């Protein structure tokens, strides 16, 4: 019975329950998953579009499986029987075409055999400047007709005897092995480089353990960068990106600029010394932390012994604590010395970089000053020419001004007439101003009279009619005067 068994009557329109490592791919129907889990190798010729779509889905699925942490490495796909079992889906079964998928992804350079990735000296990327050798050309010219003849006899080709053997091999265990997932490696390398670039306090020097500790979260999960993954990243970033140099024998990793000459990029004695000094400081710090922990344990145990009235046991713990304290003091002294040395070394390295900048600035300035146009004679000649040009410009400007005045008849105007006209305009303006003031004054007086009359009218209205028997002032005067 085949291990790739599929139920006979699955419900095609229902949503399939994907393995936990593939849940990030989103929902998918059982019918679609059945097509993906079938042996679709024959579609490569009969239906290339469907074949490529299936391979692309599996590429995403395998990437999701690796990056999910389902295996020990988040950069290496372990293609084996365990992978097939992990891909099993209830109601669909196990993938029958996984060997074809791995073969296709290796051909597209998405997967690279792990051993080949680590052992290759040259870059894993195909060279864009490859030129066929004369031997290759001769082989192609001579062998092409022979290959065509073998295709006609069905000896080679997709539908040939060899092709069928290869197809059957893809469904066997021949594709088993460990494969580096190149897209994941590329993304992780970019993340590590950005983390290093954004760390202004870093000098770009690590040992391997320090490199792993510094970039342990580069895969998107805490402490996800394993030792095998660290080896892959160091190999890729040195060989294929050129952003660091790693010497595993000396245990030194150095970030560097790929544009620098090889001699400057190489790990030197100073780099090795700095890493060793930093490693020693870290080791002392770990020892001090361990000693302090042991001292606290001895103190706690001594207190427990005293509570149980075990004075001898308590004294033993206190003696041990005293010995540990002596060792701790020595370690603290050594740490102080090493840290002081480290500060001096870092300061000296900084001074070296500053002097390099000074030298570069000096050479740049001298290169600029050596330009022929900045020689003393050339400068004086240029300034004299500039002065002469300014004189000529002033003369031309004056000539143009005189000619313009002549053209518009500026010299024929009688200044006396201009002054008389100006005086007339001034008198006219003064008369207008005076008339305006008079009009304003009259208007204000009229406003005051009007306001006064209105006020008297309001007072009369508020006083009301004159009561009977009360004579107005004029009537009283007439009565008093008589007939």
TrEMBL record:
It comes from the Eukaryota. InterPro entries: Snf7_fam. Residues 274-301 form a coiled coil. GO terms for biological process: late endosome to vacuole transport via multivesicular body sorting pathway; vesicle budding from membrane. Residues 430-458, 473-483 have a biased composition (Basic and acidic residues). It holds the Pfam family Snf7. This is Snf7-domain-containing protein. It comes from Schizophyllum amplum.
